[in-house]
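quick one: S-adenosylmethionine bound model?
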Amino acid sequence: MTDPVTAWHRLAGSTVLLDGFHALKHAVRFGAEVPVAVTADRAAALALADELAPDVRDALGALLTEVSYETYASFVPRPHPTAVAALAVRPSRESHLARLARTPRTTPVVVLDNPRNLGNTGAVIRLAAGFGATGVVTTGTVDPWHPTVVRGGAGLHFATAVERLEVPDLPAGPLFALDPEGDDIRGIKLPDDAVLAFGSERTGLSTELRARADHLLSLPMRPQVSSYNLATSVAMTLYHWSLGAPASLWERP
Ligand SMILES: C[S@@+](CC[C@H](N)C(=O)[O-])C[C@H]1O[C@@H](n2cnc3c(N)ncnc32)[C@H](O)[C@@H]1O
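yep, here:
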């Protein structure tokens, strides 16, 4: 068996860093391939698994190798309180594109049009995973699998489809673009196959995306307030969709 330090150095450049117990727990739960996982305190990590993730406790027990705290700390940008880190294989672009293109689609796709803040993008992926959205598509230059985005997503990139696309290649489906100037969302039932698009933190929706949109929708907001945070806007919109969607989507498997 390859020792974890050698494996880590061999794989670190070509895999996705799972930083902390919760990221590893989510990734394993949603089927990620994890070739190496380390902890500076195996007993503490397994106690957390017993308490918070009994469903994947055995899988985590088989994956986690204990290393010194110094070795663990050398693998991560800054140590996580749980002292757990792992590397996961990034799913192929083709597999995610196939999931995004599959029809009929039963849950929305979220589009972030040229997002700039990596933490926001991670938070949106976490929301999409929680609501069972089909996926999150970004346009623009940011890689939605950037390590800081993955950190913000808490390992939930593996629970939804996450890819970057050009506006003309967005998945099919009625396109609802969110903008403070749009029609009040409270008068609309969002369909399950909706494509829900949100603008950049700095400049809002691009001209290209606006031109593609079938509907422009606004979230209720007092007149003196300019806009909401991007991830907050996604949360409100997915929640609005969920009110009209079948409750069975959120039942335990
Ligand atoms: C921080 S805002 C963008 C602010 C930007 N300065 C602008 O000019 O639009 C990021 C995105 O969140 C969504 N958003 C924020 N507040 C909204 C509201 N009240 N109604 C609908 N969408 C909103 C929009 O998609 C917006 O493009």
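The chain has a mean pLDDT of 96.
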